[in-house]
Amino acid sequence: MGVVDPACWTPYRGQPKVDGATDPAAHRAAATPGGTVPTSRTTCLVAPDKFKGSLDATGVAQALRAGLQDVRPELDVGCRPMADGGDGTLAVLTAAGFERIPVTVDGPTGCTVQTSYAARDTTAVVELANTCGLSRLPDNVPAPLDASSYGLGQVVAAAVRNGCRELVIGLGGSASTDGGAGLLQALGARLLDGDQREVRRGGRWLADVSSVDLDPARELLQGVSVTVAADVDNPLLGARGAAATYGPQKGADPAQVHHLEHALTRWATVVEQSTGTRLASSPSAGAAGGVGFAALALGASVRSGIELLLELTDFAPALATARLVITGEGQLDRQSLAGKAPVGVAAAARSAGVPVVAVAGQSTLDAAELAAAGFAGVYLLTSVEPDVHRCQSNAAELLTEIGRRIARDHLTG
């Protein structure tokens, strides 16, 4: 798939199509409802997510800026690296002016890890992936039955004890399927088996839970607003639940998925008896192996991760001077449409009347899907270098070339 004709991709035109050529004049005439790109907008706003396995979001933005300014040296390019609450969120917020506060916690299997949370005034943002996510597994060995979200709770507790009163928990990239039990245990909740002994960490042991006391955790969070940033709406249980949908991605075989489903069912029953509220079927209860469920049990609200990041990084004011927005991620696919960063950026740009183009390594979306998401065009690394492995190893160089092409197609004349 090559470059998509921007004139055909504008949401104000007819059916989109894929074409190897680009018509800048047609784009300028079709990029806004009024038919022209406002000449007062001189800034190009670059707001990509990471290209996983190649470059972080900052690296992607810098490479694109280099290409843009090769063609237009005078161009004012604003770099706004973006994330959706998963891995990379802390880096994005640090670039936006948040302070990193270091914390030492238990990783997914109990080994000590050095992590941090991002703080600004009384707001704290915790990234699960950086605390007890897949990337924190020792030697990258999966532990589908024994991995825990305990370290996430330790970071949350540290932020609250340091005076934070608005807490955002970014879900994504979790190594565990423990229903968020570890999070609750680290916050002081007591999980007991039939012999009134503390239940061990990990999804394996949830089948033994007989009672749960959430009061210590609620006491710790008194006066603290908790928001969960999630980009999936899966329930805790069933065919779309945490175990069935995401367990295999964390190394669980069919027998282990069955065990986890049974354990989570028991866990949900005990927690719902304690809270008096049915939560297992709630949207996002299955996020991050069920951490969403535990957060809901503590009264947390759930929001789109990208929407929250756009607010926290003050993205809307930057759009006021933008002539064009460039976003992207390593691969555009159906998951992208479910609330990933590029689609969120495109929605914000579209609302502001600013055309937006996407950059990706590859795309499995067709022209109609990309147009419906609000992209005026899409540029793929594979259109420059067909070899996927070379795309990954030479991503910066290829993105710089893509930046040049975007500048010629959209920002000259």
From TrEMBL:
Keyword Kinase set for record: yes
Pfam (any one): Gly_kinase
Tagged with keyword Kinase: yes
One example of a Gene Ontology biological process annotation: organic acid phosphorylation
Keyword terms, alphabetized: Kinase, Transferase
InterPro entries, sorted: Glyc_kinase_flavodox-like_fold, Glycerate_kinase, Glycerate_kinase_RE-like, Glycerate_kinase_sf
A GO molecular-function annotation: glycerate kinase activity
Family, similarity comment: Belongs to the glycerate kinase type-1 family.
PANTHER family: GLYCERATE KINASE
Name by which UniProt lists this protein: Glycerate kinase
Native organism: Verrucosispora sioxanthis
